[in-house]
Amino acid sequence: MGDSLRSVESSRGSPEGQSAWGANEESMSFTATKSVTGKGSASDALSTLELQAIIEEALQEVARGERVLAIIPDKTRDDNTDLLFPMAAQFLARRSIAQLDALVAQGTHPPMTEAQKRLKIGAGVAEVPGLGRIFDHQWDRTDQLVTLGELSAVQVNKLTDGLINESVAIRLNALLAPGVYDTVLVFGATMPHEVAGFAGGAKYFFPGVAGPELTHMTHWLGALATIEQVIGRVETPTRRMIEAAAAFVPANVISFTSVSTRNNDGLQTHALFAGDLNESLRRAAAVSAQLHIKYAGRKYFRVVALLDEHYDELWVGGKASYKLGSIIEDGGELIIFAPYLNTLSTTHGKLIEKYGYAPLETVREMVAFSDELRANLCVAAHLAHVSYGSFRNAEGVITPRYRITLASGVTEEICRRVNLGFLDHRTFRREDYETDPDTFVVENAGRDLYLVNPPSA
Predict the structure, then answer these.
(1) Could you tell me which CATH number the domain at 5-293 has?
(2) What is the pTM of this model?
């Protein structure tokens, strides 16, 4: 099955000085608190039996009578939770646990329907014995949150390389309060991510089921560190912060981090690592870097992003810009074709419309003069991330590095209001762009990160 990666006992994370890109860069040392089991590589396709064996090995430590909470991704994530969750539930039922519930790591996204939740965990397709409730996470309701501690200003300064110098409360969904559950399972896939570097691991706690404090701070931190220096890297300021915060979770945590791709035959799982929250992420990210980072070899004046249909609002559909921006020339254009996308954000749309997309330098100025934006730093970060980068034009004015044209269900009025170009998606013809040597067309945009060349060693 190719050159598989396998670890049964682990005491350290990625070798010091290595990122998932394989580039030489400074990284914090990491010590795992429990073993990691699993295997996989870019060339592997793990069978159901192989996945089941990994699940069951990782769950051996769960004792009879325990109360178990599973944290699961929401509908914006394309992953194999529907396959893994029933395997875990069936094993835990044989283990005679007392309780199995699930909590959706939706961050600030709108809740799923009951049908979508059941589909996400494979209920109705496979047997899911012992399942109790599937809870929504309500990030902005104080009565639904619990404070587990605080990261001091000194700690935050060190974790963020001096980018942020203030303390932050560690508030999570109240289901994670001491004594509510004995074990927490974290299900999710990893791929390059604009805020944390790679999705997965502690990110399912922050912002997945977190309160507003760390949700805002981590998003803004990702913007301050700049998307170019974060996306596709494991050891980032944001990763250090969320892992330090996740250490406050009082329950035993078992993470299931997978790496998958989708083609015409469906979702293929290339790797699954289970056990320690932080180490399983690093093992999976090493495989993800081989699968989810593509190299174009050049920049293009125009990139046409045929957006992945999982992204039904620009709050998540902005990944088309995050993952393609590095291969667009200064002064070029990104066209995002998403006919099923009809809103900027269900949760944050009004604020986005009020301030508009702009380069980080401009957003920082807006934040400095707006109490409203300072109270909603995740929105400020989104404005800068979608704009991606900047350059000085011939007049010396800071300008977005490329213009973004949206061909979607979002109206022309709203597009202009937030500094986006507008294209009627009904008039869009892919063939108009495919023969242009200065245009690059990307299928299922938002999944893979595109760079010009691999980072030099």
Answers:
(1) 3.40.50.11440
(2) 0.86
